[in-house]
Amino acid sequence: MARTQWEYASLVNHVEGIRNQLNNMGQQGWELVSIVPIPGQFHCTAVFKRPGAPRITSVKKRGNGKTR
Fold first, then answer.
1. Per the domain annotation, does 3 fall within a domain?
2. Which residues does the chain have with pLDDT short of 70?
3. Which domain of life is it from (predicted)?
């Protein structure tokens, strides 16, 4: 039996805007693995996985939703 290969992504966003980003990632087939607050800030890092080619993708967002 072949092992599942996983693709990973991370997202940094303001905690108030994270719900929309989580829903968008879910609609693209990503599963939330972990969410970690960034100490001293109102931001958090979310880590996702989905079946696919093994690679790491980083998506950075500002509090206003614009890509950095």
1. no
2. 1, 53-68
3. Bacteria
